[in-house]
Amino acid sequence: MGMQVLAIDMGTTKEEHCKKLGADFFVDACNSELVKHIIEITKGGPHGMINVATATKPIEDAMLYVRKRGTIVAVGLPKNPNFTANSYILVQRGITLKGSFIGNRKDMDEVIQFFARGLIDVPIEIHGLSELPKLLKRLQKNEVQGRLVVDTSK
């Protein structure tokens, strides 16, 4: 779509994965100077941020690095849905904070067209239900790239 994409995730294996999927830049979320690093890479902060993480800290961090009049979209659903928002920062910098649960028919048509053109490549692993404990451990260790599908017939 002509945008430069910065992916933020945890771990060096995720960098290769994110760049393979089209990210122009990658920042490890464990970086102690995450906010500063993102502002430097994007020359003033990104115009927008889409949070798909199931945690609130990425949204709180985004309020510090998104540029003036930037937009933060929360899509991920954390266990604890409450996060801290500094209203002074939101107002002073004109940041838009919004949530999105699902898209509409037009959005779905666009996604299908992207997929048909080969622009979406999400690794999928299919496992049997008997492997669930092992899969949960991998998720906890942040070792999963893409999506895990549990086949209940196995």
Structure commentary:
- The chain has helices spanning about 10-20, 35-40, 55-65, 85-95, 105-115, 130-140, and strands at about 5-10, 25-30, 50, 70-75, 95-100, 125-130, 145-150.
- Helix 2 (about 35-40) packs across helix 3 (about 55-65).
- The radius of gyration is 17 Å and the shape is globular.
- With about 150 residues, the chain is an alpha/beta fold.
- The relative contact order is 0.12.
- It contains 6 helices and 7 strands.
- Its cofactor is Zn(2+).
- Keywords: Metal-binding, NAD, Oxidoreductase, Zinc.
- This is Alcohol dehydrogenase-like C-terminal domain-containing protein.
- GO terms for molecular function: alcohol dehydrogenase (NAD+) activity; metal ion binding.
Key phrases:
154 residues; alpha/beta; Rossmann fold; 2 domains; three-stranded parallel sheet; 6 helices; 35% helix; 19% strand; ADH-like_C
Task: Briefly characterize the structure.
The protein has 154 residues and is of the alpha/beta class. It folds into two domains: 6-99, 3-Layer(aba) Sandwich (Rossmann fold); 122-154, no CATH class. The protein has helices at 12-20, 34-41, 57-65, 87-93, 105-116, 132-140, and strands at residues 6-9, 25-28, 48-51, 71-74, 96-99, 124-128, 147-151.
